[in-house]
Amino acid sequence: MRSFSETLTVNASGGRVLVTVVLDNPNGHPMSVPNAIATDKELFGRLFEIRDTATGKLLEYQGPMVKRGALTAEDYFTVQPGMRHTNTLDITDSYAFKPGQNTYQLTYAGFAVPDLGRLEGTVRLSVAPVSFTYRADSGPMAGR
Hints:
It contains 1 helix and 10 strands, in the order βββαβββββββ. It is mainly β.
């Protein structure tokens, strides 16, 4: 039996870095994940860890940081049994990508909640890291 899964892909072309998230629920019960990964189109906090593969250095998050309390049931998106949901986030301006062509590895520590009435009962998801190559402009906004 397959279990709930979260898969990431990165499309780094056309001057943008887009992360597509696929949530697949083949189970017989709903699973919920944070809206930040399931429905938002941009980041409002450091959601991903991105490393330069040549140096191993972590890229600085430079996007907006929204301070908030603990997540509530309203902060989750529910993937119903037998359903698949896809969302794409534009992270281009959220991380300090180096000028020129560089290769990066993106990781995400995913989790889901089987019962929104028990938010403390989270389930860790195994989300495979994704490598991608991106050519950033060397203009004044690059590498902020």
